[in-house]
Write a structure and sequence with these properties.
Aspartate Aminotransferase, domain 2, 16% strand, 7-stranded mixed beta sheet, 17 strands, 3 domains, 485 residues, globular, Aspartate Aminotransferase, domain 1, alpha/beta, 4-stranded antiparallel beta sheet
Length: 485
């Protein structure tokens, strides 16, 4: 820009249209009706300011040789404003296609919700609801009652309370039952979850004192017996759902810990982390402990999640002894951690589905994804391969990439069954010559730039698209064919 004559630059900038003139451009009329005049005016101002700083931005700077004049300039400026509005008004939280091979992907929203849950959210979101109003008595009610009945029915527990996630459930429990006192936990169960969420840190923030018991790989009942003292508040067993300790190991059974806790009048708490309300082995999946099993083994309280293996919304549930649940409900922190009406509506709808366990894989999308046969996924991959290849051939380096149908192994994700894999199928995209990492990243970015962004994974000098979580191949095929030659 500095090599242009200053007089020409000054003429170009001084002859830019006013904000008001540009606001009356015909191409902006629909945008004003849709988004409102303030949004459009601000976009015009931003576009004009950008043009003053970089006159070449529109490609039609007034007064420069070879340009068609004011109409072209105003049309280009209006188009620039429209582009700014499109970026600004696009939702930040958007649907994507999860082709990573991790079913319950924390970064991608974990479990998809069943239609019944979506309908329940819409129903209570449209207006007033009986969130904390007892319709039978015509008086104030308790919001957790909308789901507590289903939780007690499905787990066999006497009472239940719900908060916004399982971490919150653990924090509330510790804060209510063990302030400034000791909590006994086996050293091999001091978990760290994604985002550096560490159990020792949570206990410190909850105001209790962690008392480590045993060693990393071997803990005995006598270790717990020796650790119990006057400051002990409860015994806690944490399900190591996101890792396994193998080899020379020893752990104390829940029933033994329950009996020890009862002998010392201490609550015995089990944190299942992910948690499931059904026997996964019936669905052909590896076994995972359920709240009902934990209760049967003597747990006084059990905590678990709603948006993982359960297949519902983000929530944390505590089920167990009525007197302990009452203490959690009355604690001041409960109000800060409570669920909103839409979460409770979705959770109630999902819990109702568990009353019919024979049809869970048909009605709960997360369980359907986890149980899809590899042959079905391979057939889908074969169907999609031509569209993928056609889209790849539109790359600036056309002919550089090749998409092949491959067998894959999916993982469950979100800390559930970490060493188990699910036979799957999908597509592997490799360069016909060894691709650079930057080329693969650029290719992954192209997929993320699609109208419905596609998220795969890069590994072993290739981009992998696992189809386990793709319900309708047309959602991918259609947008690929739209840009393919």
């Amino acid at each position: 820009m500095t090599d242009r004559p200053r007089a020409v630059q000054r003429t170009s900038r001084s002859r830019l249209p006013s904000v008001d003139r540009l606001a009356h451009h015909p191409s902006l009329k629909d945008s004003i009706q849709r988004h409102g005049r303030p949004v459009v005016i601000q976009a015009i101002r931003d576009t004009l300011e950008h043009q003053r700083k970089t006159p070449e931005a529109t490609g039609v700077s007034e007064g420069l040789p070879g340009l068609d004049g004011t109409d072209d300039l105003e049309r280009a400026l209006a188009q620039g404003a429209l582009e700014r509005i499109a970026v600004q008004m696009q939702a930040s939280l958007r649907p994507v296609l999860n082709l990573t091979g991790t079913v319950l992907h924390t970064n991608l929203g974990r479990a998809p919700l069943p239609p019944e849950a979506l309908e329940a959210i819409a129903a209570v979101g449209r207006g007033a609801s009986n969130l904390e109003f007892d319709l039978a008595r015509g008086a104030r009610g308790e919001r957790d009652d909308h789901v507590a009945g289903w939780l007690t029915r499905l787990t066999g527990a006497p009472a239940a309370v719900v908060v916004n996630n399982n971490a919150a459930a653990v924090v509330l429990l510790l804060r209510a039952l063990a302030p400034r006192r000791e909590v006994l936990v086996s050293r091999g169960e001091l978990i760290e979850l994604g985002g550096s969420f560490r159990l020792p840190d949570i206990m410190r923030e909850a105001g209790c004192v962690l008392r480590e018991v045993g060693t990393t790989n071997r803990t005995h009942l006598k270790d717990f017996e020796q650790a119990i003292g006057p400051r002990t508040a409860l015994i806690m067993q944490v399900h190591t759902s996101n890792y396994r300790i193998e080899g020379y190991t020893q752990a104390v059974e829940a029933r033994e810990l329950s009996q020890l806790a009862a002998a010392h009048a201490l609550p015995f708490v089990v944190d299942l982390g992910s948690g499931t309300l059904t026997d996964l082995t019936r669905l052909g999946l590896p076994a995972e402990p359920t709240p009902a099993q934990a209760m049967a083994q003597g747990a006084d309280l059990v905590t678990f999640s709603g948006d993982k293996l359960l297949g519902g919304p983000q929530a944390g549930m505590v089920v167990g002894r009525a007197d302990l649940i009452a203490r959690l409900r009355k604690h001041p922190l409960k109000r800060a951690l409570r669920c909103d009406k839409m979460t409770l509506a979705a959770l109630e709808a999902v819990l109702r589905l568990y009353a019919d366990p024979e049809r869970l894989t048909l009605r709960v999308p997360a369980l359907r994804w986890l149980t899809r046969p590899a042959a079905e996924l391979r057939a889908m991959a074969i169907e999609l391969q031509p569209a993928i290849q056609g889209w790849l051939d539109t790359d600036p380096g056309a002919g550089h990439w090749k998409a092949e149908v491959v067998s894959l192994n999916s993982q469950i994700g979100s800390g559930a069954l970490p060493v188990e894999s699910l036979p799957s199928a999908g597509l592997c995209i490799r360069g016909k010559t060894k691709a650079r990492g930057t080329d693969l990243q650029a290719l992954a970015q192209r997929l993320r730039n699609l109208p419905l962004p596609v998220i795969g994974r890069i590994a072993q000098d290739a981009l992998w698209l696992d189809l386990r979580c793709l319900d309708d191949p047309r959602s991918l095929q259609g947008q690929l064919l739209a840009v393919a030659p």
